[in-house]
Amino acid sequence: MADTKLEIEKMIKEKLNIAEIDRNATIATYGLDSLDVVEFLLDLEDRFNITFDSNETKGIKTVGELLDLINKKI
Fold it and tell me: What is the pTM for the complete model shown?
């Protein structure tokens, strides 16, 4: 599980092109829109065999919220 969390954090860092994750930063701060987030979540679904419901994802504004949702699923 710890390895999975590290892998997800690495994926987020690569997607956002950042060195450190700021949980309070908005996703828009990094230039992503809701479509970018959906594409990222689809990648996670494929990679980790999990499913996100659109109701869960539509309110995501910060990187921390995104991480919390992902961690809830794994």
Answer: 0.77
